[in-house]
Amino acid sequence: MKKQLALLAALAFASTAAFAFHCPADMKKIDAALAKNPKLSAQQMNDVKKFRADGEALHKAGKHQESVDTLAKAMKMLNVK
Ligand SMILES: [Cu+2]
User: Fold this and answer.
1) CA angle at 33 for the pair 14 and 24, rounded to the nearest 5°
2) Are 70 and 55 within 8 A, CB to CB?
3) Suppose 40 and one of 27, 35, 44, 78 were both cysteines; which one would form an S-S bond, judging by CB atoms 3.0 to 4.6 Å apart?
4) What is the pLDDT of residue 34?
5) Number of helices (H) and strands (E), helices first, in the chain?
6) Given this model, what pLDDT does residue 11 score?
7) How much distance in Å is there from the Cα of 50 to the middle of ligand 1?
8) What is the whole-number distance in angstroms between the Cα of residue 63 and the centre of ligand 1?
9) Distance 13 CA to ligand 1 centre (A)
């Protein structure tokens, strides 16, 4: 029983850590795409920058899942995976 609990805790920690690394990786991809002057309208550019900023704020607040979801929207607009 104790072993199972330890395993569960390890798994929970591992998934949190994975997300914690996921956001900066996504932000890097977005920054790289933005640096290449993507062909976006001014409106789309505003949205991408907003998602990028929101994603970073959510990441810093520890809301990694929401951060990943928000950053994914920006990545979709920029066509990066
Ligand atoms: Cu994060």
Assistant:
1) 20
2) yes
3) 44
4) 97
5) 3, 0
6) 66
7) 16
8) 6
9) 13
